[in-house]
Amino acid sequence: MHAPDSAPRPVPCTLAGMVEGARLSVPMLPGVLVFAAAVGAASAEKGLTLGQAVLMSFAVYAGASQLLALQLWPEIFSLSAIVALVVVTTAVNLRFLLMGAALQPWLSRGPAGPVHLGLAGLTDANFVIGSRYHSGGGQDAGVFVGAGVFMWIIWTLATIPGHALGHLLTDPKRFAIDMVMPLTFTVMSVGLFRMRRDRLAWPVAGAVAVITAQLVEGFWFIIAGALAGSLAAGMFRDRS
Amino acid sequence: MTAADWTGPVAAILAMAAATYMVRFAGYWIMSRVPLTPFLRAALEALPGAIIVATVVPLAMRGGLSAWIGVAVAAATMLAVRKDIAAMAAGMGAVMAARAIGLP
């Protein structure tokens, strides 16, 4: 259990922690490289220049939303077309809001500069690496920051060969690109489960997500399922 | 190249980026202004796992039988050898193999 709130201990952010974060990211490289290549290929197909493809990967840095936005990429950029892209991107990335909230009690005790850099690069990868590290008792915010920055660089660079060699990746499903995020999560979730805390939260999250996915288009199921599971854990917490 | 050729795409990319940064910081910002009650603490501690479950299960359902095979192989490999990279490779390989032989 946690110590009382009255004296929150400061959280360090060390260079060694950042290197450790990068090291923990290495197993995700194959998935991220293929995913980034698919995004690069989709950008080439939709007529983005190499510079625009790299700019998108660097500035947006959120693969699932980039891939979906590119599927809807317009030929004429009216204001309403841009608004539609922003709405789709926000909807797919709304899970980052929950991730930031989940990390806040830990990261807010760290140095603001590096923590904000890590948050700017918040994605599924460094979220799950940071969460697993912290749930195992780790305190160094550098692990979260280092994983984020490392993957950010890799992601941006890996867009380039995808843009150039896009024609080799005509069918992303064949290369299991739609499964990179779920498989990364599956692998990282092993060891995250705590019986007393999660025996209710996980089934509730899964059930609500599945029902939402049947009823609502898009990626809202992540938000609905995660909130339901989290609220269940809050309401039925152990009061010892 | 005229201005109109690149302004549209670049404006769209920058707008998408701005929206993404807003959601990245919004949850963190909200939580720093809300007192951490025992209820919220328990809810936030369960949130990472809940996000993972709520992502994996519906996406695996959308991905079909091949996706379930991949998830099962990845989880089993992880439980057996506790090596992220081996589990990722096994999962991706299983999905690709299942799709190569024509499974949905």
Explain what the structure shows:
- The complex is a heterodimer of chains A (240) and B (104).
- Chain A is mainly alpha-helical and 240 residues long.
- Chain A has 12 helices and no strands.
- The longest helix of chain A is centred in the middle third of the chain and has 23 residues, at 142-164.
- Chain B has 104 residues and is mainly α.
- Chain B folds into 2 domains: 1-34; 45-104, no CATH class.
- Chain B is built from 4 helices and no strands.
- Chain B has helices spanning 3-31, 38-63, 65-81, 84-100.
- Chain B is flat, with a radius of gyration of 21 Å.
- The interface between A and B is large, with 102 and 73 residues.
Number of helices of chain A: 12
What's the gyration radius of chain A in Å? 19 Å
**What do the pLDDT scores of chain B average to?**
91
Shape, per Cα inertia axes of chain A: globular
Number of strands of chain A: 0
What oligomeric state is this? heterodimer
Helix content of chain B: over 70%
The largest inter-chain interface, given as chain pair and residues per side, is: A-B, 102 and 73 residues
Helix content of chain A: 55-70%
Total of DSSP H or I helical runs spanning 4+ residues of chain B: 4
SSE string of chain A, helices as H and strands as E: HHHHHHHHHHHH
**How many E strands of chain B?**
0
Low-confidence stretches of chain A are: none
Question: What best-fitting shape of chain B do the alpha-carbon axes yield?
Answer: flat
Largest sheet entry of chain B: none
Structural class of chain B: mainly alpha
Radius of gyration of chain B: 21 Å
